[in-house]
Each structure stands twice: as structure tokens, then as C-alpha cells.
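Can anyone check this?
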Amino acid sequence: YVSLLDGMIVRMKEELGEADVRVIGTGGWMELLGESSREIQHVDSHLTLDGLYCLWRRSLGRPLEQGSWQK
């Protein structure tokens, strides 16, 4: 699976025309796959949930303190 993932990332970079793109792996499987990947520079398994939390707070008009979503 790591080779499939790396292959997709390489093709996306080629399509973008950018070789120097920072790739962040998200989700539960990235803890396993990310460490073996040549193309993934950082793994954040909660990035999507953190983003949704930030959007929810903004929709309620509540201020978001720096790092308050990372408890």
C-alpha cells in the first residue's frame, strides 16, 4: 500500500508541476503507512477533526485561542 500511496503522490506532484510540495498524511492508517513512505513528510492523524472543530467554534462566534483545540 505504501508504494501505491507514494505513486499517487508523485503523480499529483507532476500534475501540479511542483516537486517541492509538503505532504501531510492524515487519518488512522497514516500512523502505520506514513513512517514507511518516501513522499510523506509529516503525519497528523487528527488534522481533519481539528479543522472541523475550528470551523464549529467559528460558526458559534466563539473565539479560538491558539492551541485550544489541541487538548
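Reply from J.R.: I decoded it. The mean pLDDT is 87.
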